Amino acid sequence: VGCIPKKLYHIGASIRELINADSNFYGISGEEGKPDDMGQLATPTTQVHWEVAKGNIQNYIRSLNFKYRVRLREKSVQYLNKLATFKDAHTLEVVDKKGRSSTITSSRFLVATGGRPAPIDCEGGDLAISSDDVFFLEKNPGKTLCVGASYISLECAGFLAGFGNDVTVAVRSILLRGFDRECSEKIGEYMKDHGVKFKMEVTPTKMEKVEGDQIKVTFSDGSSDTYDTVLGAIGRHADTDKLGLENIGLKTNPKNKKIYTKFEQTDIPNVYAIGDVMEGCPELTPVAIQAGTVLMRRLFGGSKEPMDYVNICTTV
User: Is the entire prediction scored with pTM above 0.85?
Assistant: First the structure.
């Protein structure tokens, strides 16, 4: 999950929007389309088959994962699909999917477990899906409420609307906090022009199942509406709960469970962290890749160059 499937869904949504917006101007019609009395074509009707897009995108991701495993094997890197927990600073207990456990010892460990979406904290909040779950839905999400105004929420709202869905974004305060305000406002206006609706200065206070398997959402301003899908994108926390960091005395930020580091090195000298799991690191895949590359050069290549986390660009 993450930026790759999201990018592919955006490509699909853009293709549909492009067909609807411009194909008739260039004389391209749908099935049996004919010019009218003025010699113009009507906008062609497009139909979205969510299950086809979802299946093809998932197969593409599987092919990438397979290629990564092949490349690891070619470099003599052993890949273990197991859950690891620290027993001490140099020992891990690892458990496979059948519950069989074993131990691994090492002079150094690198933690790069990434992050997970934070759940919506309200009555019935468990009815909402996360921004990760949307890529695995078996059917089109239909009328959707995206809770949150982060770039993840807006990106999901954008491609869902591009696929022709009725999409609303619930915004607690402002769009894209921390980003340039002029750009953020332009993004909001652009999304409105493309059919995305915004409920400003509200948060969900209650969710409940209603007739037809829909979800009724009551908001903090007293209003309510029903949706086929509620998608929560209100932030992420580091996936560190099951790592047993307390067994080695490694403290994390209590707000987001991220690990404190200096030059990717934790308080435990032989334990390092990169990516979304690291406090103060932008939550972007290319940043994690580059941080890992720079760290390995320092550890094993004789380099003294640190990772530069200043002025990193983010695309929304």
Answer: yes
